[in-house]
Amino acid sequence: MGLIANFFIADPDTAACLEGTFEMDASDKFEAHRLTELEVGYLYQIAMGRPTKFDSTLGFSVVNLFDGGERITTKLPDAFRDLLAVATAEESNGWAHAWSKSELGWPKSDCSEVIKGLQCLAKRAQAANKSLFLWNCI
Predict the structure, then answer these.
(1) CA 124 to CA 130: how far, in whole Å?
(2) Cα–Cα distance between 43 and 52 in angstroms, integer?
(3) DSSP code string of 10-74
(4) Using CA atoms, how far apart are residues 59 and 57, in angstroms rounded to an integer?
(5) Are 3 and 136 in contact (CB under 8 A)?
(6) 35 within 8 A of 51, measured Cβ to Cβ
(7) Kindly report the CA angle at 9 between 7 and 31, in degrees rounded to 5?
(8) 7, 21, 70, 108: which could join 100 in a potential S-S bond, CB 3.0 to 4.6 Å?
(9) Whole-angstrom distance, CA of residue 120 vs CA of residue 11
(10) pTM confidence score
(11) Which residues contact 71 (CB under 8 A, 6 or more apart)?
(12) pLDDT tens track, the chain, 138 positions
């Protein structure tokens, strides 16, 4: 079994009660396999113009652990949501290029697909005054 990574939008007050994204509206979630907060944190650093190793002080916060950490929900920083929501095509293309050159080791096209999915969620979250979350399951 591989690592499942579902991004979703939710109100921060209720996200801790969510166990997965199974019953969410499809427009409120995006699935991307094999991503953890480390890889997403690196993308955030690229977006901020600081492409270095993951910095644990970026504002990612665990909101829930299930089954001893086999399933985990992490809140992404609202500042990251806001960067994603307003990024131009040129900016997101540059992010995808830089991210593809990282330890992630994905083709640029795969990185672009994830960034586009995150941008759609970020715009919806920002408009609804909600936050972005990452749900991982091993």
Answers:
(1) 8
(2) 10
(3) E-HHHHTT--SSTTS-GGGEEE-TT--HHHHHHHHHHHTT--SS--TTSS-EEEEEEGGGTEEEE
(4) 6
(5) yes
(6) no
(7) 20
(8) 108
(9) 17
(10) 0.90
(11) 19, 20, 65, 135, 136, 137, 138
(12) 468 899 999 998 887 776 655 677 888 999 987 898 889 999 999 999 986 666 666 889 888 887 777 888 999 999 999 999 999 999 999 999 999 998 888 999 999 999 999 999 999 999 999 999 999 988
Token output for 111: 């990185």
Residue appearing with tokens 């972005």: 132
In the block, tokens 């492409």 appear at 51
79's CB contacts (< 8 A; 6+ apart) are 59
